């Protein structure tokens, strides 16, 4: 969805990416946001086995000195390291590639064919559009109409043992 630009988040991703990889994690996302009067640098990590609080702490301890030394952020900020969670936002090309065929929800800025939300199997992702398959129908939406795409976890399937 989003094209990375050379902002603070992408500079930080470039700085810490190699260390996160060396620790055997994937760098899912980096965000630098202001909430109220506070700034937050949010580093999201992932791996196939999942992420624990110990994993977050391990990565936090490893990247903190790198950020202190490089000092890419002028303002004071809070560093947070977390998992993307079960229902995760898809932002980058490789996110979409990894979740092709999985259940996702497209949230739109404005209604399209009477709906601002479409849930279905991720069927297509190109530079121009995202498509989801809903049964026999496929809904194709241009990127500029999409506010957010996230995976959808089927909690009902957990009851089937």
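^ Assign residues to that structure.
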């Amino acid at each position: 969805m989003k094209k990375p630009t050379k902002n603070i988040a992408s500079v930080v991703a470039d700085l810490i990416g190699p260390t996160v990889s060396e620790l055997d994690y994937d760098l899912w996302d980096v965000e630098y946001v202001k909430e109220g009067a506070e700034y937050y640098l949010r580093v999201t990590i992932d791996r196939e086995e999942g992420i624990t609080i110990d994993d977050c702490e391990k990565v936090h301890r490893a990247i903190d000195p790198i950020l202190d030394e490089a000092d890419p952020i002028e303002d004071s900020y809070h560093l947070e390291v977390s998992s993307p969670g079960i229902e995760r936002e898809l932002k980058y090309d490789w996110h979409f590639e990894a979740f092709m065929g999985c259940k996702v929800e497209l949230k739109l800025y404005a209604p399209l064919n009477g709906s601002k939300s479409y849930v279905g199997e991720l069927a297509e992702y190109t530079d121009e559009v995202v498509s989801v398959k809903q049964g026999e129908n496929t809904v194709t939406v241009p990127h500029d109409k999409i506010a957010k795409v996230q995976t959808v976890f089927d909690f009902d399937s957990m009851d089937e043992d």
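The CA atoms of residues 44 and 84 lie 6 Å apart.
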